[in-house]
Amino acid sequence: MSTLTPTLLVTGASRGIGRAICEKLLRQDCRVIGIARHSPAQEMAHQNLVLEALDLSRLDQLPEAVRALGKRFPAIDGIICNAGQGRFGSLEEFSPAQVRALIDLNLTSQILLVREFLAAFKTRGRGDIIFMGSESALAGGRKGAVYSATKFGLRGLTQSLREECAGSGVRVGIINPGMVQSDFFNNLGFQPGDESDAHLLPSDVAEAVWLMLSARPGAAIDEINLSPQKKVIQFRKPS
User: Fold this and answer.
1) Looking at residue 212, which CATH number applies to its domain?
2) Total domain count for the chain?
3) Is residue 227 situated within a structural domain?
4) Which strand (E) or helix (H) includes residue 124?
5) Residue 1 falls inside a structural domain
6) What is the rounded average pLDDT of the residues 59-66?
7) Disulfide engineering: 18 pairs with which of 82, 116, 124, 155, CB 3.0-4.6 Å?
8) Residues in CB range of 128: below 8 A, 6 or more apart
9) Residue 2: inside a domain, yes or no?
10) What is the DSSP secondary structure assignment for residue 130, as one 8-state letter?
11) What is the model's pTM?
């Protein structure tokens, strides 16, 4: 990352991990362009923060929207691809539309977003790309087939881009968090444990992002696997 004040693009910026990443970057005097599906909370207002409403799941409109964003903010130094959704169940419980929607948001949109900036990063000879993976990118589990497929795909994308970009000065990495205490689980039938060593906090993931970004030029942290000390899953009773 440049020693000058960097400008970083963060997707899924309005809540949870994305919001924590934005707050961490702003504390480090970065300029942040935050993208969210819905208008982000007004209390996030900051002189170095620009908030943009953009639905990454609308793939037919995404490339054009991202190109327009790049023209408005030509000095973007890095991208943190954090936006995503969790949906779990046996494969046969998913409709074809639900399968498509999860893959579109968690994987395809990330590919299209990065594609629009990659050539400029390579030409400039620097840039950071960080993907938000998951422990589900490391091992599949029951009722996680489609979600894990998207995260395994994201990890494969990261590894391939890492090799492709190594000679250009562009760094590519992925963070694979375990269960984070956030609203990710609001509409799911399970959640992490309540004890402090049974879940991660969004700020833990934000610190890992900063660790990657702040590595000296020429050094790249390819992958961080971040877990709570204990793995505890609590299942909600059906309402």
Assistant:
1) 3.40.50.720
2) 1
3) yes
4) helix 109-124
5) no
6) 96
7) 82
8) 1, 8, 77, 78, 79, 170, 171, 172, 173, 212, 213
9) no
10) E
11) 0.92
